[in-house]
Amino acid sequence: MEALARKTVREMTPYMSARRLGGCGDIWLNANESPFMNEYTIKSDRLNRYSTCQPDTLIGAYASYAGVDRDYVLTSRGADEGIELLVRAFCEPNKDAILYCPPTYGMYAISAQTFDVAAKQVPLTADWQLDLDAIAAHLDDVKLVFVCSPNNPTGNLLKRDDIEALLTLTADRALVVVDEAYIDFCMDASVVDLLNQYPNLVILRTLSKAFALAGLRCGFTLAHPIVIELLLKVIAPYPVPVPVADIAVEALSPAGLARTKFQVLDLSANRAYLQAGLGMLPGVEVFDGYGNYLLVKFPDSEGLFNALWENGIILRRSPIEGCIRISVGSRDECEKTLAFIRQQLA
User: Fold this and answer.
1) In angstroms, how far is CA 170 from the centroid of its own chain?
2) In terms of pTM, does the model score above 0.70?
3) Torsion over CA of 94, 100, 104 and 110, rounded to 10 degrees?
4) Less packed terminus of the chain by CB within 10 Å, N or C?
C-alpha cells in the first residue's frame, strides 16, 4: 500500500505534535494550552443539518473582536487549516515556493511539502529578528512568506518596522503571512491595523491559546477581501461544525471576552512568576516571552527534560540547542515545575 502513496508523502517527516510525542503525567506544559476549563452550552437542535460554510454570527463576532470588517475574515479548522488553504490557493506545485524563518512553527514547511511546494529557509538573526537582506535574496518563485509574532518557540516579538519593510519588499510579489496565534497575550503588538494599508498582508489567529479552546479547532484568517474570496474557493464545503460555531460565538460574547481577559492576566502573572523563579537559578537563561510559554536554556537540558518527563512533568524539547519550552499553566503547576527544577539543579 505504501507504494501507492505519493513519493513526497512517503519520504516526508510528519510534524510531531505534543500529543503524538505522548507522555504520562499530571502536569502538561508542552502544548501551549490553557489550564482553564471553561463551560459552554452545547445545543443539539441543528445537528441533523450541515453547517454554514462561514457562519454569519461567528464571522461577525470575530470581526468585531479583531476590529476589522467582516469581509476580511475567514474561519477554519484551526489556524493550521488557514496555512494549508493559503498554500493551496497561491502556490503551484513543483513551481512555486514558500519562505519561512526558523526557528519557528514547523507546520509552514509541512503544509508546503504536502502539496509539492518548495519551502525556503531564511533563519532569524542571532536576536531572533527578520533577516531582511537574506529574505530579499531568496524571493524568487516565493508566493508566501510566513513569519510568527510572538514567535514559537522563542517567544519574542518581531519588530513592527521589519514587518512593514517586508510587506513593502514583497508588494505585488508575495503575501506576507503573520502568524498571530499568541497575540491575545500582547494585543498592542498586533499588525491588524496594517491590513488596509498592505493588501499583501495576511494574519492567522486562533481560539486555541488565550481563549482556552485548543480542543475546539477554530481559527481565523484575516486578509484583504480578494484573498478571502480566493480561499473560499478551496476550503471544504462545511469546515465549521455547528457546535464549534456555537461555542466560539459564546466565547466571543461580552461575557466570554471578559473571562478571557481575566484569564490572560492570570497567565501573564504566572509567566512572570515562572520567569523570575527560573531566572534566579545558576546557569539558567530565561528568554523574554510574550505568549503563554517561555523558552529556557539549561546547563543540561536533555537530562533535566528526561527527569521532568519521568516524574510526570511534561514539557517540550526545543530545536534550539540547550533549550526547553515551558507552557505557562496554573499557579500550582508553575510552582510544582519550578520546585522540581530547583531540586534537580541544586
Assistant:
1) 23
2) yes
3) -10
4) N
